[in-house]
Amino acid sequence: MSLPSVSVVITTYRRRDALPAAIAAIAADPHPAEILVVVDGCADGSYEVVRDLAAENPRVRPIWRENGGEGAARQTGVESATGDIVLLLDDDVVAGPGLATGHARAHRDRTGTVVLGYMPTTAPAVRRRGDFPTVLYAREYEQACQRYENDPGSVITALWAGNMSLRREDALRVGLNGPRRLGYHDDQEFGLRCARAGLTAVFDRSLAARHSHSRDVDSFLRQARLSGLARRHLAATYPDLVADTDPTGTLPGVLRAGVGAAATPGMYPLANAALRGGVRATGRLRMFGAETYLARTLRQIELLRGYRGR
Questions:
Q1: C-alpha closest to that of 225 among 263, 195, 192, 261
Q2: What backbone phi and psi angles, to 5 degrees, belong to 172?
Q3: Which Gene3D superfamilies does the protein's record reference (predicted)?
Q4: pLDDT for 15-41, tens place per residue?
């Protein structure tokens, strides 16, 4: 049986400098019929970069749309695609050799399946202050992959996309753009809608790519708060698939109480300032274990504030 055709969809927002490497890596695989790069309404020169690359490679197609978020950009790309399979890649993900061909093979004997590839983040070889967002991200991504392998049923309900494929007809039936723009956990929300639509998911480490991750402390904490807001929304919207659990529930008792108190309106300004100061100080002193611990505590506070809607 021949392999199904593949359309690659890369959505991008303000990552102009990452695009040449991301596009070149997936273009090295001869299988994709087209590489659609959807620029989500950013005027940083991304569209011009893709347009120039398209002049050199006719498989590359730049698409401009007004800013609507990642889900809307993915929807635009899938609607424009012509392949049997759509391979959805983030703009900071660099495909490994034969990635699109591997995704096509994964779908050859499957229907109604979301295929999730592997995209580890390389932690900094030499730790510097402020590296904790990437260190934590790399560690937590590997933990998520281990959960996928220990509990395959969790792939569809805890989807971590960025290197993901499914049949185009399934993507259009479910819709890439959710009913509400969450700002975080949009991948998980898409997976939950896929589950309700009867799709299943598999995780395959052999479908490998490399994820480049970088966040400053403000982005790190803003995403934590959005994560808390999204968790509450997902638990309320999909109670049959997502447990409504306090995000501090797994913390030790004393730390849980401290985080809960620090998240209250009266204590938050003081706790936030003190912990941010501690993160800066421990980073300058190269006390990286302490820096990471304090940053995680800050993140737990923001997560809880988001979950409580504050």
A1: 263
A2: -70, -35
A3: Spore Coat Polysaccharide Biosynthesis Protein SpsA, Chain A (3.90.550.10)
A4: 999 999 999 999 999 999 999 999 999
Q: Please check whether residue 1 lies inside any domain of the structure.
A: no
Cβ pair 103, 117 in contact under 8 A: yes
On whether the CB atoms of residues 117 and 136 are closer than 8 A, the answer is: no
Is the domain of 242 the same as that of 149? no
3-class SS string, 156-206:
HHCCCCCEEEEEHHHHHHHCCCCCCCCCCCHHHHHHHHHHHCCCEEEEEEE
pLDDT tens digits, residue range 68-117? 999 999 999 999 999 999 999 999 999 999 999 999 999 999 999 999 99
Please answer whether residues 12 and 37 qualify as being in contact, where contact means their C-beta atoms are separated by less than 8 angstroms: yes
Question: Is the separation of the CB atoms in 1 and 108 below 8 Å?
Answer: yes
Final residue of a domain: which of 184, 215, 246?
Answer: 215
Half-sphere exposure of 103 (CA within 13 A, CB side): 35
- Residue 278 within a domain: yes
Domain range for 260: 218-308
At CA 296, angle to CA 291 and CA 299, rounded to 5? 125
Q: Using an 8 Å Cβ cutoff, are 286 and 129 in contact?
A: yes
User: What is the three-class DSSP state of 123?
Assistant: coil
Q: Could you identify the residue written with the tokens 């999730």?
A: 116
